[in-house]
Amino acid sequence: MPEKQTPRFARMLPGQRRRSFTLAYLNGALWGIGNGLSGTTLVFYLAQSYGASGLALSWVLAAPALVGVLRLFTPLWMDRLGNRRRFCIRMFSLSAVAMLGLPLMSAPEILPEDAHSITALIICWAGYQLLTDIGMVALWSWFSDLVPSRIRGRFVGRRSSWRNIGRVIGTVFSATGNYYWQRYCVETNQPDQYWIGYATLATAGSVAMLLAVWPLTKMDELPSPSEIGSRSARYRMRELIQPFMDKSFRSLMYYGGWFSFANGLTDTAIRIFILADLQIDYSQKRILDSTSRGIQATLMPWAGNQADQRGNIPLLVTSQGLVAVALLFLLPATAEAKWWVLGTYTLWIAYAGINVAMPNLMLQMSKPECSAAYAAAWFAVVRLFYAISALIGGVLYDWASEDWTYFSVGTWQCDHFAMLIIIGFMLRSLGMVWAARIHEPT
Question: What are the DSSP E strand ranges found in 76-223?
Fold first, then answer.
């Protein structure tokens, strides 16, 4: 029989709650440092250094989301252990180990062919992301019980801010370290050794993410209304479909699915465009990323306060519109006029509103007695739609780069990148309609 939860106290005093909040912020900051040191961008560049094609690079983006559907069963696995704290600690620790294995398993000459190295990289990356996703479901369920509904927007905003601050710190170290390593490779005429810099950063990121587990060991938790560890597997299986039967929550999932599909369809093309056509290297891109996230970090507490005071929907609709318009700045951008990309990154600061409003809505619309099932359903739907569209986008990019017929409008040339960017703008703009249709609880 699974062990029942034994929380330190049944009712939380204000000082104890503040302490738990501080530890939650510290966990976000340390995890952010790990993401900044490694993360999707680094793995994407590492795969490209191995000679990955457009479709293979799409798998880097899509594979974690595809296996992430398994997070739907997190409530069942959490019941087997019977305690959210221990479950989170184990999942996040294992995910850090998986990230540590990524550069070791995929390094050149470990496996006989480059294709095998790319496959190993994708498998380790997907395993890391799956373990992280499962841990996140339990963590958000934990937060649902820990944080009173009247201040959840502020809590999400502040934790997101600290996570972004951590990502900025990690990104600065990542960009700086990679810059000097690549310069050394150029000076010594060893461009085939670029991958070592990426692998080293992935290792450092895994260590930071392992350190992020420590605050979770000190956080307190209230007894869960879902009675973790005491309900039957049959009951939990019925509970898993509850979010999909909830009309209000489905409206949020419709928006989340569209948001992810629109992003995934053009993500591969945009990343390749920034790297290949604009000739923005890893260090430069990480500087752009860190600057954008640093500004987002200053805005997220304000966004959380706005969500609590005025609702999430106005914040979400406005932010979605700005994120869509951001893509249009890429159309006139070239290697000689790459400064246009600054317009894109400036408007991408609006992700601060989306990254606060979406998880806050997920928490607000979840039923307390099965909050883990709601979190699992939300993240599974969002990531699944991203995975499907990323794969479609990879195939579309490979086709368009070979078969797309160029045409000109005045001095502007519409190539395959421009076509995909315009599609991305239109799809992201329609996301405003889905956001406005969400039935936010009052």
Answer: none
Q: What is the pTM of this model?
A: 0.72
Q: Within a 13 Å sphere around the CA of 418, how many CA atoms are in the beta-carbon half?
A: 14
Burial class of residue 392 in the structure, from the number of CB atoms within 10 Å of its CB (0-12 exposed, 13-18 middle, 19+ buried) = middle
Q: How far apart are CA 381 and CA 69, in angstroms?
A: 7
How buried is residue 439: exposed, middle or buried, by Cβ count under 10 Å (0-12/13-18/19+)?
middle
Residue for token digits 């599609």? Answer: 423
**Domain locations in the chain as residue ranges:** 14-436
Domain topology for 14-436 = Growth Hormone; Chain: A; (1.20.1250)
According to DSSP, the β-strands at 412-414 and 407-409 are antiparallel
Q: What span, in angstroms and rounded, lies between the C-alpha atoms of 278 and 297?
A: 27
pLDDT at residue number 141 = 82
Location of structure tokens 């939990």: 236
Q: Can you tell me the distance from the alpha carbon of 365 to that of 123, in angstroms, rounded to the nearest whole number? A: 34
Contact 41, 285 (CB under 8 A): yes
- pLDDT value of position 330: 87
For 217, the token pair is 């060991």
Helix (H) or strand (E) holding 239: helix 233-240
Contact 340, 288 (CB under 8 A): no
Tokens of 419: 């076509």
Which residue type, as a one-letter code, is found at position 38? S
What percent of the chain is predicted at pLDDT more than 70? 88
Which residue do the tokens 């519409």 mark?
Answer: 414
Return the H-helix or E-strand segment holding 414. Answer: strand 412-414
CB atoms within 10 A of CB 286: 28
The reported pLDDT for the residue numbered 4 is: 42
Asked if 162 and 32 touch (Cβ cutoff 8 Å), the reply is yes
Low-confidence ranges of the chain (pLDDT < 50): 1-10
Could you tell me if 90 and 395 are in contact, meaning their C-beta atoms sit under 8 angstroms apart? no
Q: What are phi and psi of 111, to 5 degrees?
A: -115, 155
In one-letter notation, the amino acid at residue 132 is T
C-alpha to C-alpha distance for 97 and 127, rounded to whole angstroms: 10
Contact call for residues 72 and 236 (beta carbons, < 8 A) = no
Structure confidence at residue 8 (pLDDT): 39
The C-alpha torsion from 66 through 84 and 140 to 234, rounded to 10°, is 60
Distance CA 264, CA 37 (A): 23
Give the three-state DSSP class for 206: helix
Residue 6: predicted pLDDT: 39
